[in-house]
Each structure stands twice: as structure tokens, then as C-alpha cells.
Amino acid sequence: MCFRNTAAGFWTAGGFLMEEGMILEALEAELAALESQGLQRQRRTMQTPCGVRINVDGRSLLSFCSNDYLGLAAEPALVDAAREAALRWGVGSGASHLVSGHFAPHEELEHKLATFVGSARALYFSTGYMANLGVVPALVGRGDAVFSDKLNHASLIDAVQLSRADHQRYPHNDLAALERQLGASTAKRKLILTDAVFSMDGDLAPLTQLLELAERFDAWLMVDDAHGFGVLGSQGRGALAQCGIVLADHPRLLYMGTLGKAAGVSGAFVAGTKSVIEWLLQRARTYIFTTASSPILAATLLKSLDLIAGTDGEARRSHLQMLIARLQDGLQGSRWQLLPSPTAIQPIIIGENDAALRIAAALAEQGLWVPAIRPPTVAKGTARLRITLSAAHSLADVDRLLAALQAAQ
Whole-model pTM above 0.85? Predict the structure, then answer.
């Protein structure tokens, strides 16, 4: 049976508009507003594998916008591993992990990830977004409190909203403000949430001090190391390892790493104590109620971890650091001011949306793909070029980018 509401309305950014029959027109007006403000996103179609030299919408470009930090996304050894896995395991899992979709490669991967990051146990999720959306509501709820860095990734922000816990945001990396918030909180359970590497600025969270606050105020600490896993720390074990934090020594600490960036494949994992991971397996809805990822991906990730931890991974990380230094040195004294980032994420603040789009277009004319990042991804007035470097780049590639930036107006 159908019902007709004669007082239909519609909420937009401008408030409650719409009489019945105007919903589509309102949506189109909102899209037009995005375009006029320089905020409408455009999807690009890749016609070559992920890499630094790509074909996009029929154009050959040198890419500086991928999160493939170690250049593993099209690594032949991983392609071979995926091919072998497909022949052995097929292409699909057929069910959720807790029904019949948990295969031997999934199990082996979780054990290997736990050992790699130094935890008792790990749980493999289909994506990093799903990991965050699953973990936070499983740990806290109504009557609890979450303390979140203002520059945290959207997945962490959404995760707090799903949890229904009180959400207190502290200024970026402001430990004093966080300490005041924790001290004033009477919540039954507390959770501190932070990115390890902030995806739009490229800077690092003060993880040692955050852990100290978590221990002093009896709070969980969850670290999203999407952009640090595989790149930072000894053997690429991540931001915790870089800070000298041993995950197994801190039962209130949870670590999330993604596997579609430096690892070159897909998915994510959460590592922690046996009890915490068992609780997530029982309660994280984004793990329980979704079809498991293909065993092909898990088998390929086993090979990826070998490369990350071995001499090949060390060589890639060393080369990446050379590229970062080359870019930073090359822009010193120029009008282009990089944010102070020690990571592969090297943003140049432009300011206005139109200016960022114009400069990105000028670089594209010279065959360089550097994305313009605009609100709401970043704050209003801080539109930027987000340069991301990969171990697959050469020094000559960076020099070409430097020359193009110097020529851009």
C-alpha cells in the first residue's frame, strides 16, 4: 500500500524547503551550489594499473595522488600470489566470517598480522572504514565518552556518531585540552581516538603522551595508523613501533592498520589483547554482518607482509625518505610552503578553492596529477594540493614536479 503525504518537505543545507514534487529540484539546486563554490568532486577513470605512470581518462599522467606508498599495488610478486590464490581458493568467500566465509588464508593472515605488530591477536576487516565503524560502537555507547582529535578521519567521526557516546573533540594534537576534558569527564567508559598520521596534513599524533593520558584516566586508546603501517617504524611495523610503544604491553591500546595503502592490496585489521579482539569478533557489526573478503586478498597480503618486513621493503622505505627530502629541499625558499610533514603526505596550502583547482589544472596540463583537496575534507580557506609520494617514484619524477610547481602561477 502506498501513502501520500500532502505536507511533504525536504531538508537542505539552507533549511527546510520543499513542497511535494520539488525534492528532485532541490537536489539539483544543491548540486549546482556545490559546483559554483568549487566543491563538486569529479571521478576519474584509470585505464592502467595503480602506479606512478598511469593513463587517466585517455591521458598519460605522472601521478602524485595515490596512497600506494611502497609501490606494491602492481608488484609482480603480489600479482603472482593473487593468481595462485585464485586457482586454489576461487574468487569469492560465499558468506560472512562467522558463517562459512572464514578461509585458511584469513586465519593465517590474522596470526601473521598480530605477530608483525606485536599483539596477542588481530581481526581482519574488509576496509579501514568498516574497521573503525565496527570497533568504536563495540567499545562504547550511551553514557560513555569519546575524545577525538578534530582532524581525525571521517570514518572515526562517523563511528562515534554510531556509538551514541558523548563526543568531545579536542584541538588538533592539543594534549592540554585533552587532559582537561578527560579530567572533567564522569563517563563510565572513556575512549581516546586518534589518527597516527593525519591524512590531509601528514603530521604525526603524539602517541606516547596520548597513551600516558589513557593510562592515567583509565581510558581506551585507539590509534588509526592507516598511513603509517608499512612505512613507519622498524620493518614498517607502524607508528607505534616508531614511537617505541610495544602493543602487547598496553592492554588498553587498540591498533588499526589498513592494507590497501602501503601494503598494496585491500582491507584492514585491528590488533589488541585476546579478550578485546574476541569481543570485537562477537560485537563489531561491520565484521559480523558482511560477506568476508575474498581469500585471494588474504593470500596476497601474506606475500605483501613478507615484502614489507624484508630487505625489499627496507629499500623502498629508504628510497621514499630520499624522495621526501628531495621535495622539501626543492621547495625551500619558494612561494610554495609545505606543511611540516615527515611522511609521504606532503601538502601545499593554497587557500581558496578556485585557486587550488586552477593550479592543479595547470599541473595536469604538464602531465602531472596532483589533487586539489577542498572543504569539507579540509577546513574552509585551507584548500590544498595534496602531494603523495611513492617508492615507485624516481628522483627525476620529483624534479619534474618541482619544475612544474616553480612554473605554475
Answer: yes
